[in-house]
Design goal:
heterodimer, A: alpha/beta, Rossmann fold, four-stranded antiparallel beta sheet, B: mainly alpha, ABC transporter involved in vitamin B12 uptake, BtuC, binds adenosine-5'-diphosphate, binds magnesium ion
Chain lengths: 235, 374
């Protein structure tokens, strides 16, 4: 098991945002976490990457307990988090953004190799290298955010709503790349409101409703579930 | 035919606010014209005196620039006005004072190796003294950050601001105690002789005890050193911030701390590093200032600190080029006020500039309006 989450509870002050959720991700999988706005999807990813401390429960990554590990350490272990809203460093150039993605890598030539690898998936970033991150279009920013997340050679990448605010063509493009990243061996935990797209690429999925997991199973089964169809797929 | 009644235009009222703003603008215009007038007649009346004032202003402005960088960098990364920064400047002057006066550190090569070239010994010794002051001030600033500011990282900003004022008072008034330094001015022993030249029909050395002739402009070796040191610092800083990994991480951290952590950046270390860099520049400024104006006391950092702070606000707090430009303007404003109005007025001018900036363009010359972040 790559990632194992057990009975996780997270609070924001008095708000009980995650109410004892358990799930897992196996090596090589795309696992999707779908749910409405405010269900707790982003909170789950923030807890995994160490940005917020869970009150109780456990997170185990490759057998190591990382429940209370700080964010800086979790990246080192191989989890990369591409946050919601992309969170590009606007005053930094595209190149500098990518270099920050590889902050934990010391070897310069290794960084250059990773950058070339990122350009294979996102050729448009190469043309924009010296442009400031804040001047990119929404789609380009999502490419940069995803590319930046890949720069540190993660074992598991956490993607928070990569399709948010993008045109249908860009959405197709991003999901094609997500599959590609996965085929090259990176496991993916994908958080989406766009359930249809998410279920079409994922192996397995979990449905999150106000801080609880209400449904789980192979992505195809979830997509065929009548309640899911009604609530998330707009059928 | 009946026309549909249109909504009435609201009557034009002169709001008291816009009225006041107009009075303010006219007032400013009058003051500005008056200042230009004074400067112009003096420029034509005695150009050499005007040039001398410009040079005096450059010397002050470059020292203020060294201090202002620390204010602006620290503000950029933790949104804190580090009021103890001017006192780090003072501590540096005292460290170099003891190094020179008690331990003759400025002459160590010659004392260790008799027969060592005396001028080379002075150069190496002085650089050593400056480096020692810088190192001690870096340690001081890192300690202040750890002890006083870091525990307040998540607290409301005003808490850290009040703490900064407290740290500043502590450093100043601890030194003021009678068994420490007391309130007196202490003559500062320079690590090297100040050499002065005057410019009139060529450049001539000013002999000791001889006043330069009327109409001469004087410059000194310390002026040249201050200019060179500040320009070197600017180049170094641009290189650091643009080209090095830690410098890019500083910019990333000041923009968005949680995302910086997701990259693996150790935000606390980057913040410490920023305080350290700022303190080292202020320390360099402290030694050079003491050499240029050789009398030190524990309150000596107060006014230069406040003026450098005004310079940083004027340039746009958070902006490195802004701090430099703001400091040069502050230096000129102060030198012109001392030269043409009165010496005590120079401090009033500094704060008048602060008030004007806050009224007219609070974001300063290079500042951008504060962005809202989620
Ligand atoms: N910083 C915060 N402070 C307080 N409450 C928050 C914060 N972030 C999220 N929440 C609350 O936690 C719940 C889950 O939010 P989130 O994880 O962002 O949902 P999702 O990503 O599924 O839309 C929501 O009720 C939201 O209002
Ligand atoms: Mg979310």
């Amino acid at each position: 098991m790559l990632l194992e989450v057990k009975d996780l509870n997270v609070y924001y002050g008095a708000i009980h945002a995650l109410q004892g959720i358990s799930f897992n991700v196996k090596e090589g999988e795309i696992v999707s976490l779908i749910g409405a706005n405010g269900a707790g999807k982003s909170t789950t990813l923030r807890a995994l990457s160490g940005l917020i401390r869970p009150r109780s429960g456990s997170i185990t990554f490759r057998g190591e307990d990382i429940t209370l590990a700080p964010a800086e350490k979790i990246v080192q272990l191989g989890i990369s988090h591409v946050p919601e809203g992309r969170k590009i460093f606007a005053p930094l150039t595209v190149r500098e953004n990518l270099e920050m993605g590889a902050y934990i890598i010391k070897d310069k030539s290794e960084i250059n190799r990773m950058m070339e690898r990122v350009f294979l998936s996102f050729p448009r970033l190469r043309e924009r290298l010296s442009q400031l991150g804040g001047t990119l279009s929404g789609g380009e920013q999502q490419m940069l955010a995803t590319g930046r997340g890949l720069m540190n050679k993660p074992t598991l990448i956490l993607l928070d709503e990569p399709s948010m605010g993008l045109s249908p063509i860009m959405v197709e493009e991003i999901f094609r790349i997500i599959k590609e990243i996965n085929q090259e061996g990176t496991s993916i935990l994908l958080v989406e409101q766009n359930a249809q797209m998410a279920l079409s690429v994922a192996h397995r999925a979990y449905v999150l409703e106000t801080g609880r997991i209400t449904l789980s199973g192979p992505a195809k089964e979830i997509a065929d579930n009548p309640q899911v169809k009604e609530a998330y797929l707009g059928v | 035919m009946q026309s549909v009644s249109k909504p009435q235009k609201p009557p034009v009222i002169v709001s008291p606010n816009s009225f006041l703003a107009w009075i303010g603008k006219i007032f400013l215009l009058v003051i500005g014209l008056f200042a230009v007038y004074i400067l112009a007649i003096n420029l034509f009346d005695k150009p050499y005196l005007f040039a001398q004032n410009v040079i005096n202003g450059i010397q002050l402005g470059f020292v203020y620039a060294l201090i202002a960088l620390g204010y602006t960098m620290v503000y950029g990364i933790v949104k804190l006005i580090n009021f103890a920064h001017g006192d780090v400047f003072m501590v540096s002057a005292f460290v170099s004072f003891f190094a020179v006066e008690r331990f003759a550190l400025h002459q160590w090569p010659q004392r260790l190796f008799p027969g060592f070239n005396p001028s080379l010994s002075t150069v190496i010794g002085t650089v050593t003294t400056i480096l020692l002051s810088m190192v001690i001030c870096v340690l001081l600033a890192i300690t202040i950050e750890r002890v006083a500011y870091k525990p307040l990282r998540e607290a409301p900003r005003i808490a850290a601001l009040i703490t900064a004022i407290g740290v500043s008072f502590f450093l100043e008034y601890f030194g003021l105690l009678n068994f420490v330094f007391s309130a007196r001015y202490i003559p500062y022993q320079r690590p090297f002789e100040v050499v002065t030249w005057y410019i009139k029909d060529g450049i001539h050395l000013v002999e000791s005890g001889v006043t330069p002739p009327d109409g001469a402009i004087t410059i000194s070796n310390i002026l040249i050193i201050i200019i060179f040191a500040t320009i070197l610092v600017q180049i170094f800083l641009q290189y650091l911030v643009r080209r090095t990994k830690i410098g890019i991480a500083m910019r990333a951290t000041s923009f968005d701390k949680p995302t910086a952590r997701l990259m693996g950046i150790q935000v606390d270390k980057v913040i410490s590093f920023t305080f350290a860099i700022g303190a080292s520049f202020a320390a360099l400024g402290g030694v050079l200032y003491a050499i240029a104006y050789p009398s030190i006391r524990t309150l000596m950092g107060v006014y230069p600190g406040l003026k450098a702070f005004v310079a940083a606000v004027l340039g746009g707090i958070g902006s490195i080029p802004g701090a430099f430009v703001g400091a040069l303007i502050m230096g000129q404003a102060e030198a012109m006020t001392s030269g043409y109005i009165s010496t005590p007025m120079r401090d009033a001018i500094a704060f008048s500039i602060l008030i004007l900036v806050l009224l007219i363009k609070p974001t300063g010359i290079f500042g951008e309006p504060e962005k809202e972040k989620a």
